[in-house]
Amino acid sequence: xxxxxxxxxxxxxxxxxxxxxxxxxxxxxxxxxxxxxxxxxxxxxxxxxxxxxxxxxxxxxxxxxxxxxxxxxxxxxxxxxxxxxxxxxxxxxxxxxxxxxxxxxxxxxxxxxxxxxxxxxxxxxxxxxxxxxxxxxxxxxxxxxxxxxxxxxxxxxxxxxxxxxxxxxxxxxxxxxxxxxxxxxxxxxxxxxxxxxxxxxxxxxxxxxxxxxxxxxxxxxxxxxxxxxxxxxxxxxxxxxxxxxxxxxxxxxxxxxxxxxxxxxxxxxxxxxxxxxxxxxxxxxxxxxxxxxxxxxxxxxxxxxxxxxxxxxxxxxxxxxxxxxxxxxxxxxxxxxxxxxxxxxxxxxxxxxxxxxxxxxxxxxxxxxxxxxxxxxxxxxxxxxxxxxxxxxxxxxxxxxxxxxxxxxxxxxxxxxxxxxxxxxx
Length: 426
Hints:
43% of the residues lie in helices and 18% in strands. By secondary structure, the protein is of the alpha/beta class. The protein has three domains: 168 residues, Nitrogenase molybdenum iron protein domain (Rossmann fold, 3-Layer(aba) Sandwich); 121 residues, Rossmann fold (3-Layer(aba) Sandwich); 100 residues, Rossmann fold, CATH 3.40.50.1980. The strands form three sheets. A seven-stranded mixed sheet has the order 1-2-13-12-11-14-15, with helices on both faces. Helix 7 runs parallel beside helix 9 and helix 11 runs parallel beside helix 16. It is globular, with a radius of gyration of 22 Å.
């Protein structure tokens, strides 16, 4: 075990100490980000350069039936490739050619690195450049989803980072807004309507639904993060001249209001007009949350590190639903991106960054929380020990952003407690 305590930087105004741990982790690799990215970017194809294990992981994570034809696949690295008996680049070119011939509708091909492709030192950036010349009608990009380099949601961060150099230069210095982070289409549509009603625009989303609709970027670009795990993408955007709008993340009624208000203040929206636009959806969100307050208020919750959503979700559960935060673990804590979240956590909260799964399990068992948020690999053993759990993966795959989804988000946490109570009665 290696662990150390360090005070959170003064910029966060949070007095809680962070427990930094390094050891065994229980978390999916970044390949799983393809599950939601291939649904979001509707004309892109994700070709994983990996092993049969990678293929089985994606098949299981996506729940793809054998007769389905999703826009992702695995170029399987065989024993001959690993042994150097075959030219891996020739094999990759052949498989990519087959994919593009079969799917002429594809406009962007992502070559996604994995642990096996890294082991044989396959240069996917050079392969992407080569394939782009061979198939000039398709944009070919590459990024890493390897478990050596990425955790669960970081696959999206690496993917969007790869897109940023392709964004066109803004033709004007006039301000525009870019919302960064993959959102369900229904959530994106809701935000579009709100921004339009507020008079904020033009508004672009990264990633866009079609890979050819790339948002322009330049010194006039102001961007709002919709997800807290996009550190590399944010840095790449700022390298292109964009400026981040500091805001909480849009979870719950208060989080969504503050997120929208940050954009409204940046674009000079009148306070009375802002209030008139958000009043009705905010009221609906608060009413939906109130339905779950009795079930969640006072309940003690423990977060294992998984998606980097943990801190914004903990803030929402504490401030809007009255839950008690025991430990909030996150694979990484990007302090500047969480500058509006950390001050809202109570000082009694134990923050942890990274993971040493055995020691964290010991702390969880000792605390006996009412609800534990963790990965699939830990849920069943903890349930067998009498602890109620929530699968962290559901919080990524389910639309939870914005006013209209506030009740659905609360329901995800209330459901396992309700199930526990029913089983006890039975």
